[in-house]
Give the backbone structure.
Amino acid sequence: MKRTLIIITTLLGYQGYSQSKLDGYIEAGLKNNEVIKQHNFDINKSMYALKEARALFYPTVTLNGNYTKAEGGRTIDIPIGDLLNPVYSTLNQITNSNSFPTLQNQSVLINPDNFYDAKIHTTMPLLNFEIIYNKRIKTQQTSLQTIELEIYKRELVKEIKIAYYKYLQSVEGIKIYEDALKLVKENQRVNQSLFKNDKINRTAVLRSDNEVIRIQANLETAKQTSTNAKAYFNFLLNKKLESPIDTDANEIPSDLVVENTANREELEKLKQVKELNETVGKLTQSHWLPTLSGFADFGFQDFDFEVNKDSRYYFAGLALQWNIFSGNKNKYKLKQVEEDTKKISSQTDNVKQQLLLQFQISQNNLKSALEQFNANKNQKESAKKYNEDITKLYKEGQAIYIELLDAQNQWVNAQLNTNIALYNSWIAYAELERANATFNLK
């Protein structure tokens, strides 16, 4: 690991590269990315769902009113005349008066006619474990979505870095081809001059013309590649695709890479899922427990919209519900929860191994990329020296054009390979950083 860090420091020193601009782009990407905004909307929705779950603990107060107008239908017969008229007749005879009238039997409608009832109805849960565990589930779901957002942010940071390095790689490739084009055009000019002076044959002139065309085509391809790389980078930042990209050229230190997969958000997510599943199990068990709630009504009711002291009333009480038997439905639900718990534990063990494997592969890829970069850098220095020597010999007439062309191609290819290896190393470093979850998301 120390050897790897030394190579990384050497790489950074070689490139003279700074990440201050890149850090700014990452910050902008985390702020403006549309997917992150969508995740934030989901988290806000979960927070409101949590507040809704908390509101279930408070009383519910409603204003209810109804008015009924009825005629016909079922009645209740009250034989008040049959019961009291004989008594009243005897009393009239005893008192020798008509003080006690003759009463008629009554027939009262069951449906009240011209009757109103207006009341304030209040209910409140006093003992309800389902509400308690529902609130806990909403809290855990909010935490779970927050963790999922952190996972996406880390992946986005990696993608932004890789896109940035690929853009720099393409820009450097354009510079290499532009320098190569100047070189082959100079060869074209020299060969045309030598041909006019009968120093070389036409074959060298035609070959130099073809080299100019080939390098121009490669340059155009490199420009298109750079345009695509810029567009993708700006897409990740939710900016206009053609927006310019600024770069730095300052040296930065490297950070120590220590295996940190045990703190990956993916494992924290599985831990949260396990806790959520346990709460679901407790919610299922709570169905075996009784629920108790209270209610109270305060209002007025009377006929013909009369309002007086006799119209006022209150009505209050307690409601108890206890499920005695449900066909073992809750028992089987709990068995399902237990199986989910076993599955989550198995997934956790598997993900731990996957994350450790990802870290080791990324670490090995970085080492390999750095070794390749060092090898290409040495080849580049050799190719440059070889090209300078052959160019000098060709101008002195001691080397043929094919040898010059071969030396120049080696020089151009060495630059391209070194450029590719350089930014492949940066890309591998970004992938290792993602596998190790070491980037500070603040």
